[in-house]
Amino acid sequence: MRTETVAEGETIITILDNNARTMYVYYESTGMVMVMNYQPQESALDETRGITDYNPVILGTETYDGKECMVIQYTVEGATIKMWIWKQYGFPIKVETTSSRGTYIIEYRNVVFNSVTDDVFVLPSGLTTMTFTV
Known about the structure:
By secondary structure, the protein is mainly beta. It has strands spanning 2-7, 10-17, 22-27, 32-37, 57-64, 67-76, 79-86, 91-99, 102-107, 128-132. The strands form 2 sheets. The chain has a 5-stranded mixed sheet with strand order 1-2-3-4-10, with no helix packed on it. It has a 5-stranded antiparallel sheet with strand order 5-6-7-8-9, with no helix packed on it.
């Protein structure tokens, strides 16, 4: 999986290789890449699997970030979860979780589903590499 994030003007490219359990975090402006092993975690698509076990309530449909979404809500372990699921792909583009500790929101923006070539998962050569073992 590859993600690109812009934070404070800095483009950060993260590549996760689940088979190798390796994560690459590449800082474009400095030419530095951090390499570390990791335990695979749920992806955004994984979040929608199994939600039927929690008896979700369909609240309706809503356009969010230009995408037609089904809005659902359910409760798990004392937390109320409201999710905007992009109808076309079954992808949650917004997840709002409210518990006794407060509310936090995860938003996925500029999500595109298309075919990609393998070269998007290859970092440029000549990078400064920092390797971390966890």
